[in-house]
């Protein structure tokens, strides 16, 4: 079992003992998503793969929050934000804009990229470095702005 998955499982037990229903619900969702991916792919996820699952859950929560705010459903926004806080406990520290920009600049210099045709190559290089530490959508937008 990966370290991160073991930590999440242990946190589940602690939340159940503390009778913290929102935490139990959120941690169960995380474990359920991990288990679903393991069953679908017939593998046991390592820490990197667990982080990918967590990143996906964060993106889903952010999308839901935006949609619920647009619909004026503040009650649902509060639920999603509470889940997001718990899910974010399992993510590594996120890189700052300056750190991401520096990594993109370095990748452009190292690869010799000069046009949008090199976008895929750059994303391949940066995905390994930044996965889980930065939103890859914003990294992609940054690359586009620097190459155009």
Cα-based radius of gyration, to the nearest Å: 18 Å
Helix content: over 70%
Number of helices: 7
**DSSP strand tally:** 0
Strand content: under 5%
Largest sheet: none
**Considering the protein shown, what is the CATH homologous superfamily of the largest domain?**
Uncharacterised protein YqeY/AIM41, N-terminal domain
| Large-scale geometry | globular
The third-level CATH topology of the largest domain is Hypothetical Protein Yqey, Chain: A, domain1
Structural class: mainly alpha
GO molecular function, one term: carbon-nitrogen ligase activity, with glutamine as amido-N-donor
Keywords: Transferase
Protein name: Glutamyl-tRNA amidotransferase
InterPro entries: Asn/Gln_tRNA_amidoTrase-B-like (IPR003789), GatB_Yqey_C_2 (IPR023168), YqeY/Aim41 (IPR019004), YqeY/Aim41_N (IPR042184)
Task: Quickly describe the structure.
The protein is mainly alpha-helical. The chain has 2 domains: 3-88, Hypothetical Protein Yqey, Chain: A, domain1; 97-147, Arc Repressor Mutant, subunit A.
Describe the structure.
Helix 2 (21-41) packs across helix 3 (47-71) and helix 6 runs antiparallel to helix 7. The radius of gyration is 18 Å and the shape is globular. The chain folds into two domains: 3-88, Uncharacterised protein YqeY/AIM41, N-terminal domain (Hypothetical Protein Yqey, Chain: A, domain1, Orthogonal Bundle), CATH 1.10.1510.10; 97-147, Arc Repressor Mutant, subunit A (Orthogonal Bundle). The chain has helices spanning 3-17, 21-41, 47-71, 74-88, 97-111, 119-130, 136-147. The longest helix has 25 residues, at 47-71. It is mainly alpha-helical. Helix content is 78%, strand content 0%. The model has no long low-confidence stretch (mean pLDDT 92).
């Amino acid at each position: 079992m990966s370290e991160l998955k073991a930590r999440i499982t242990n946190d589940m037990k602690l939340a159940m003992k503390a009778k913290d229903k929102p935490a139990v619900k959120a941690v169960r969702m995380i474990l359920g998503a991990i288990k679903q991916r393991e069953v679908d792919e017939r593998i046991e996820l390592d820490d990197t793969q667990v982080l990918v699952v967590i990143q996906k859950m964060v993106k889903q929560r952010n999308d839901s929050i935006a949609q619920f705010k647009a619909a004026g459903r503040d009650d649902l926004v509060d639920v999603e934000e509470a889940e997001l806080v718990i899910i974010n406990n399992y993510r590594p520290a996120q890189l700052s804009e300056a750190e991401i920009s520096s990594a993109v600049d370095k990748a452009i210099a190292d690869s010799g990229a000069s046009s949008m045709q090199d976008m895929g190559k750059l994303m391949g290089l940066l995905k390994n470095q930044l996965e889980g530490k930065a939103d890859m959508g914003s990294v992609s937008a940054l690359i586009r702005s620097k190459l155009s």
